[in-house]
């Protein structure tokens, strides 16, 4: 009987999480769970009313299926529009329901497929059909899929469109790339902006105050979030006329200053705690402990009314706003909150995050991993991954799980902790097996088993070898893979020899004359007498051992081996080196897609390997880590799956 709190079934394999070496097994032969029959209803919190978005709603409510990209700068109402749509389903168009996936929920395209499988296909949270059946089931679904700032490339969006051809997919993004047919959200016209101010103030504006409201709307070009924040200042006692005068000239910069000045000490602590995790979603309970504010609900309600934080998906969770986070990070030190947040997560009484908690805290965990990586806090990074990885695995967030384990492997390398490396490699191997990549699974598990054995973890090594047996090919598949691993010349020669041998046998058979009928067998002959045994010969004389010769002179000392000193560099996306642990000039990127960054160290590193880890999280749209060996020219050629948007750390290990 499977423990559903610690195991998942993917295709024909079952994965069981464990503190040391996790287990793989064959899924039991039984009738598969029924697929989902009720419409999906993964919804955000409702949004009551939109102002002046009728034309956009008309496009978004047109007949499916379609892929619609919705672009706008932060604060222009993308999330509000998606929440409004989700709260008004159209069952005649989307009988399979509505799926909203918010920011910080995904780390890549594989995570999105798993989220859709859970919401639209699987009737049992521990089960997922194998890929061919899953693709067939997804292709038949007719649902409205709303994606808020997903970390997906244009190529991944095209692939998604092929997987759900009968769904309408709306993708809200702050991206400014040009896409034919994309919806661009503009600011509100003056009349709609004044109505928004009046809604937030709870009263109508007349006379000079109405003129001031129009002036404020024009100053912000109808930016909805700026108008909500200005109304929050007015509710605190400032008149619109005074605010209009204050905001003249540089309205956005001055508004940020006024907002920070208006905060109480308790409010500053709450917003600084959110800024420490880059505004990622946190539960009110966890935020209260982090900011040391209790009771926290009145503070959260006040900040939300004034447009300084957001609640989008769950009423008991809040998230920061980019503009506020950036301002607080500029004027205050949030390092203490980051350190405390790491201790808060790694000191959980339950030991690790559940699947639901891992999904909720995905953005915060990756933000803290980036912080630990940037500050070379390898032990904290390792402990964070150990807390989160089981939940990510059980939630089938394979991209996020893989990124987290790469962080753990890198941290183990930096610490020289072989047990930590074995732990990460073991899980990377099991993840690859679940994804059907037998070659990668075999490589990871072989390395994990070797490290487990070298550190005396015999039980863990035995479990890993058992997992390895499940992914090793057998029978004809093993023969085919072994043959495929041979050099091309050897394979060609082998085929030629086989063809000649078979052809020669056939030719000889055709050339031989026909064989006549076989005669009857004769009677058996009598057995003859045994002959006498011969004499044993005498032993020969033993040879004498020669005398030991004189000791030869000592040979000259060999050349020094390569230094074991670690080399590293922090490289920005444009190719510049921001900081380094050695003299590390870098060539400019080649300008391709993806670009190749070539780092040339002033040391002989031709026999070394390298690892490149982007400073990335689920919302930064950076690629996953990559690794390789130094090329023949003695340089490090770094190429990610797609171009990074934030700096990355390159480490050379010899």
CATH class of the domain at 32-184: Alpha Beta
CATH topology of the domain at 32-184: Rossmann fold
The number of helical segments is 24
Q: What would you call the structural class?
A: alpha/beta
Which geometry do the CA atoms define? Answer: globular
Gyration radius (Cα, Å) is 33 Å
**How many β-strand stretches?**
19
CATH second-level architecture of the domain at 32-184: 3-Layer(aba) Sandwich
Strand content: 5-15%
Largest sheet: 6 strands, parallel
User: Going by CATH, what is the homologous superfamily of the domain at 32-184?
Assistant: P-loop containing nucleotide triphosphate hydrolases
Estimate percent helicity.
40-55%
- Neighbour order of strands in the largest sheet: 4-6-8-9-5-10
Q: What number is the mean pLDDT?
A: 81
**Through-space gap between termini:** 47 Å
Poorly predicted segments = 475-486, 492-516, 534-549, 558-565
């Amino acid at each position: 009987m499977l423990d559903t709190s610690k195991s998942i079934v993917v295709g024909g394999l079952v994965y069981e999480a464990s503190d040391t070496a996790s287990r793989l097994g064959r899924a039991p032969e039984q009738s598969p769970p029924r697929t989902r029959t009720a419409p999906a209803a993964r919804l955000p919190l409702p949004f009551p009313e939109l102002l002046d978005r009728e034309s956009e709603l008309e496009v978004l409510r047109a007949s499916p299926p379609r892929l619609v990209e919705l672009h706008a700068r932060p604060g222009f109402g993308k999330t509000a529009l998606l929440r409004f749509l989700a709260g008004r389903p159209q069952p005649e168009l989307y009988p399979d329901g509505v799926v909203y996936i918010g920011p910080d929920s995904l780390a890549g395209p594989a995570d999105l497929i798993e989220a859709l499988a859970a919401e639209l296909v699987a009737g049992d949270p521990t089960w997922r059909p194998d890929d061919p059946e899953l693709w067939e089931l997804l292709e038949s679904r007719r649902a409205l899929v709303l994606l808020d700032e997903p970390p997906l490339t244009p190529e991944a969006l095209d692939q998604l469109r092929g997987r759900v051809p009968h769904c309408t997919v709306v993708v809200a993004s702050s991206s400014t790339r040009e896409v034919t047919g994309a919806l661009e959200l503009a600011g509100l016209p003056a009349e709609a902006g004044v109505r928004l101010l009046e809604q937030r103030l709870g009263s109508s504006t007349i006379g000079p105050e109405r003129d001031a409201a129009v002036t404020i709307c024009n100053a912000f070009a109808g930016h909805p979030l700026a108008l909500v924040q200005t109304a929050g200042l007015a509710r605190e006692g400032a008149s619109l006329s005074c605010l209009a005068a204050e905001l003249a000239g540089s309205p956005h910069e001055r508004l940020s200053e006024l907002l920070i000045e208006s905060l109480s000490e308790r409010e500053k602590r709450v917003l600084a705690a959110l800024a420490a995790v880059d505004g990622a979603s946190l539960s009110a309970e966890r935020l209260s402990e982090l900011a040391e504010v209790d009771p926290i609900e009145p503070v959260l309600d006040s900040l939300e009314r004034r447009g300084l934080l957001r609640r989008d998906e769950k009423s008991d969770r809040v998230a920061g706003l980019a503009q506020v986070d950036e301002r607080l990070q500029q004027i205050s030190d949030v390092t203490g909150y980051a350190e405390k947040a790491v201790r808060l997560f790694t000191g959980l009484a339950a030991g690790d995050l559940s699947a639901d908690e891992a999904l909720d805290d995905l953005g915060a965990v990756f933000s803290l991993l980036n912080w630990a990586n940037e500050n070379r806090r390898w032990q904290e990074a390792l402990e964070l991954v150990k807390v989160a990885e089981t939940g990510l695995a059980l939630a089938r967030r394979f991209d996020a799980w893989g990124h987290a384990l790469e962080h753990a492997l890198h941290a183990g390398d930096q610490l020289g902790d072989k047990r930590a490396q074995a732990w990460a490699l073991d899980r990377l191997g099991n993840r690859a097996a679940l994804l059907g990549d037998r070659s990668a699974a075999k490589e990871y598990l072989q390395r994990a088993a070797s490290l487990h054995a070298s550190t005396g973890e015999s039980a863990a090594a035995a479990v890993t070898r058992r997992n390895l047996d499940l992914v090793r090919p057998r029978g004809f598949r093993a023969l085919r893979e072994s043959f495929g691993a041979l050099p091309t010349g050897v394979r060609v020669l082998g085929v030629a020899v086989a063809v000649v041998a078979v052809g020669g046998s056939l030719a000889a058979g055709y050339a031989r004359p026909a064989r006549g009928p076989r005669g009857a067998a004769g009677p058996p002959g009598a057995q003859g007498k045994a002959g006498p045994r011969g004499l044993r010969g005498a032993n020969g004389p033993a040879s004498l051992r020669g005398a030991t010769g004189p000791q030869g002179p000592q040979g000259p000392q060999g050349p020094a081996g390569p230094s074991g000193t670690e080399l590293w560099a922090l490289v920005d996306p444009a190719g510049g080196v921001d900081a380094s642990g050695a003299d590390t000039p870098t060539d400019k990127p080649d300008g391709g897609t993806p670009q190749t960054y070539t780092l040339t160290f002033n040391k002989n590193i031709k026999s070394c390997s390298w690892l490149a880890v982007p400073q990335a999280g689920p919302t930064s749209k950076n690629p996953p880590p990559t690794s390789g060996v130094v090329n023949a020219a003695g340089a490090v050629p770094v190429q990610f799956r797609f171009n990074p948007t934030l700096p990355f750390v390159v480490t050379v290990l010899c």
